[in-house]
């Protein structure tokens, strides 16, 4: 084993409690008391154990992607992901790892060796902790991105509800811009509800869509085609005069698709198509 790795491993085993106390104190100073996890000591002990495993395998700090550091990477990823899910910031999360440097240096100072050996072990300790912090931030960013993507998907689903009006008839009020990802959500959700409810007619209301261009029209056409393949019919409502003119100017062919200017007209048409009538109560 490299001498610097041996000295670090010995330090972790002999002075672990002292290092833990120094780590906590340094982290408290760094954060000003913010972001002190309830599982702080458990996280610290897990990291030290994984660090000791890497040192025992004589891993190189410059090759942090090596299998010898696998346990440490996995432990750091777990800590980072948990903190990201709890809403902690990236700087507090990386600061937690970097706070380990000071107690390690203090421990090495208490157990001084020859000058050359001391320089090598200090450099090794600094390099390892730096790589640990880099890995932690990278994992944190990845986790946050995954959370953001999941939340965006959930918001898209909430923004395109499929409503059952009565037996056999569904409605999808679309509000806002209809881009590719949202159009895909609309299609998937609507088709799934068609299967689950056995509905024969779907009303797609675009009153809340500010503009209709070629891309939006294509999304609507694909949705209507998919509905037909499921054995159902569809009505597009909310075709305002401006939208009608835009569709004509773009040369978009909506032949064979039932369109209505208002949702009320679409509802009346849906009732006729499903054999329902409305009579005024006397």
Automatic annotation (TrEMBL):
<protein>
    <submittedName>
        <fullName>STAS domain-containing protein</fullName>
    </submittedName>
</protein>
<dbReference type="InterPro" id="IPR025751">
    <property type="entry name" value="RsbRD_N_dom"/>
</dbReference>
<keyword id="KW-0597">Phosphoprotein</keyword>
<dbReference type="InterPro" id="IPR051932">
    <property type="entry name" value="Bact_StressResp_Reg"/>
</dbReference>
<dbReference type="InterPro" id="IPR002645">
    <property type="entry name" value="STAS_dom"/>
</dbReference>
<feature type="domain" description="STAS">
    <location>
        <begin position="159"/>
        <end position="270"/>
    </location>
</feature>
<dbReference type="InterPro" id="IPR036513">
    <property type="entry name" value="STAS_dom_sf"/>
</dbReference>
<dbReference type="Pfam" id="PF01740">
    <property type="entry name" value="STAS"/>
</dbReference>
<dbReference type="Pfam" id="PF14361">
    <property type="entry name" value="RsbRD_N"/>
</dbReference>
